[in-house]
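Justification of resources, computational component.

The compute hours requested in this renewal are based largely on the per-chain cost of generating structure records like the one below. Each record pairs the submitted sequence with a full structure-token output. That output is archived, and it is also reused by downstream analysis tasks.
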Amino acid sequence: MLADSFSHKDHDHGCNEESNEEHLDGVKEEVVVNITEMSIKKLRSSVYGLCLHSLFDGLVVGSSVISANVDVIQTIFWAILLHKISAALGVGIFIRQLHISYKQALRYICWFSAATPLSTIFSSILVLFSSSYIPSSLLGYAFAFSAGTFLHVSLMHILPSIGSHVGFVQVGFILIGVLIPYLLFTEHSH
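The structure output for this chain reads:
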């Protein structure tokens, strides 16, 4: 508003008000377009990262077939299912911020929605038919990789795109959040 009030005042620079206003509007539009294009690239990479994370969530569920314990399989299934609620909300918010067509938004939603079930089916079949070749620690590695992709997407793409600067305090809390589960479950029996 302040820039608009200055652009509407009389200028003594020898150019008329309309050409100056057109010039300023052209500059404003160019800046807005550049900012929008940069933010769209960041938002798209966030959506792609969350889709990749969903693939590894499915890998975790599918590889839990290794466990003969039904309680472990059900616990992992329900944990991933409840986790998907918040992840779907995040993907929906990012897709909304992209300001893209309905058709493109539907394509992103389909990719995200299909990633976990497809990778669950694929990894379950892989585990069932080649269980003698797959180490029993695969479930732990799959879980760690899924968590790692989530941390990478959230720290490198999502926080910067919402305008939050990650400082030492935030990194400290992130490290505490990583260390607490590690310390709690280091001596766990399975």
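The helical segments are 2-7, 17-63, 70-98, 102-129, 138-161, 168-185. Confidence is low (pLDDT under 50) at residues 1-35.
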